[in-house]
Amino acid sequence: MVAGIIILVIIVIIAAWLVSSYNGFVKLRNKCEEAFSAMDVSLKKRYDLIPNFVETVKGYAKHESETLENVIAARNAAMNSTTAEDRIANDNILSGTLKSLFAVSEAYPDLKANQNFLDLQNQLSRIEEEIAGSRRYYNGVINKFNTGIEMFPGNLIAGIFGFKRKPLYEVNDTAERENVKVSF
User: Fold this and answer.
1) Are 32 and 39 in contact, with CB atoms under 8 Å apart?
2) Spatial distance between the Cα atoms of 67 and 164, rounded to a whole number of angstroms
3) Fold type of domain 20-169
């Protein structure tokens, strides 16, 4: 009788641990999706702003059509991404093309003085700050999730219920990782 009670208590403890671990992973998975969604909202703002930005630059930099086309193509690729991995890769490409667009604007003093351009540039700057904050939050949640599914004994539960690693939002372009040169 006592052995039966001990076995029952052990089974209840193991079942409670399984349920608790599973629910913890579900909660983390949902936080990962919420973090990606929050980042997606900021990215959508940027996607919506880019055509206005390109049109403003187009009026001043007519012979820079290749750069403008690259920005629009990168925007469309990022918007149409279907997986988190594709979204991350395409968004990194878009960030690079936006830098080239800003470089083009440096060659046109009239453009840099245009109030509409300055307003759009300020809006884009604020959106980029939002995106950076969203990426930090996303990476923090993803890191916690990935750590949980890789550490023992959580890896047992994760394996049983099919929880898989999620990608971090990383800078893949080595040029973006280099120190900025400042010269006077």
Assistant:
1) no
2) 38
3) de novo design (two linked rop proteins) (1.20.1440)
Phi then psi dihedrals of residue 152, to 5 deg = -75, 135
Query: pLDDT digit of tens for each residue in the chain (184 aa)?
Result: 888 899 999 999 999 999 999 999 999 999 999 999 988 888 888 888 888 878 877 777 666 777 888 888 898 998 888 888 888 888 888 888 888 877 777 777 777 677 777 888 888 889 889 988 999 999 999 999 999 999 998 898 899 899 999 988 876 655 554 443 433 2
Q: CA–CA separation, 43 vs 117, rounded Å?
A: 20
- Give the whole-angstrom CA distance, residue 15 versus residue 150: 21
Distance CA 154, CA 74 (A): 39
Structural tokens at position 179 = 């120190």
Which amino acid would we find at residue 68?
L
- Element at 71 (helix H, strand E): helix 65-79
